Amino acid sequence: MREDLNVPLSKEGAITDDSRIRAAVPTLKHLAERGAMVIVMSHLGRPKGVDPALSLRPVAKALAKQLGLKVDFAEDCVGEPARNAVGKLKSGDLLLLENVRFHPEEEDNDPEFAGRLAALGQLFVNDAFAASHRAHASVVGVAKHLPAYAGELMEAELAALHKALDDPKRPLVAVVGGAKVSTKVGVLTHLLEKVDALLIGGAMANTFFRAQGYPTGEGLVEESALEDAKKVEKQGGKKLVLPVDLVCAKRMEAKQPTLVLSANAVKPDWMALDIGPKSVAKFGEHIGSASTIVWNGPMGVAEIAEFSEGTRAVGEAMAESSAYTLVGGGDTVAAIDSLGLGARFSHVSTGGGATLEYLEGKELPGVAILKDA
């Protein structure tokens, strides 16, 4: 099985967010209960060779706790340590292999390495939606050697995205925030073909304002993306909804004095760090009338209390609506969790880059190979 157990770790090596571990539990538990010998592959971080700080051993313990079952651990994902650990498995047992990225062949999708992984099992289940935008050996390569299937988390993620984007109840409203237009221009242009309204927040709004000739003070602006912003605005027309006021400060730090300024009148030496109350009300009207809402990216610097109100208010409006609500993207999920909103949406995606690529209309390699299997 391929799971995405790529959890964030503290400097001391403690797991700081176990949501991906919890998301993997249903498929693993069902397979174990049905008598399968379950061999789990995952990556953790971006190691350059073997890195003890990025070992999956602590994850095996956390996974066992969530499952309420014993989870064995293999010191490597291939070779004698993996073969010996697999050889000891009995019906219903679970085994987590060491970090597949300890081998550079994983990210190269090396056919021989994929074959060595595949030789450990008889069937392949990809439950790692969040890693399925990567054409890596444990995601794509193994599926060329074994009968391949989607796990329950994979199915749930794809069903939620399909419901929200491919067959939505209308009006369909997308809310997109974050820092940069350049990283999301493909998402914006693809969404504009599908949505009834596209609401823009976060620092990326500054680039749209600069493209319109508005002063943006010391706010983050992508000068190289001004033409992209103009094209998106031209394509969007009335569908594109920008903030009308902004919460500004002189520094992006806690306990700073703040001013609410019109979007076209940011003062020199000040920077926009959140959407303002009039923007919250304007966005709320669109959210309140929507039947389907897709959200990716916070509305401001949500990790700082003074600049988190826009994200909280938009999240509250979605949580209180009767619409089908889909939230995706690591920063967005972290923001709604910190604000206590996480359990109030129809679907919270585990995928960061994978969700973004789906929103951009791209086919994910890890999903495409399952369709061919």
Kindly list the characteristics that best describe this protein.
6-stranded parallel sheet, 3-stranded parallel sheet, 14 strands, 373 residues, alpha/beta
Order of helices and strands: HEHEHEHEHEHEHEHHEEEEHEHEHEHH
Considering DSSP H and I runs of 4 or more, what fraction of the residues is helical?
Answer: 25-40%
User: Which strand-content bin applies to the residues?
Assistant: 5-15%
Q: Count of DSSP E strands?
A: 14
Please compute the radius of gyration using only Cα atoms: 22 Å
Please tell me what the overall shape is: elongated
Specify the biggest β-sheet. 6 strands, parallel
Straight-line N-to-C gap: 15 Å
User: Count of helices?
Assistant: 14
Description:
The chain is α/β, with parallel strands linked by helices and 373 residues long. It is built from 14 helices and 14 strands. It has helices at 19-33, 57-67, 79-87, 111-118, 137-141, 152-166, 185-192, 204-211, 226-236, 277-288, 309-320, 330-338, 353-359, 365-372, and strands at 38-40, 71-73, 94-96, 124-126, 148-150, 172-176, 197-200, 240-241, 245-249, 259-262, 271-275, 292-296, 324-327, 347-348. The protein has a six-stranded parallel sheet, sandwiched between helices. A three-stranded parallel sheet has the order 1-3-2, with helices on one face. The longest helix has 15 residues, at 19-33.
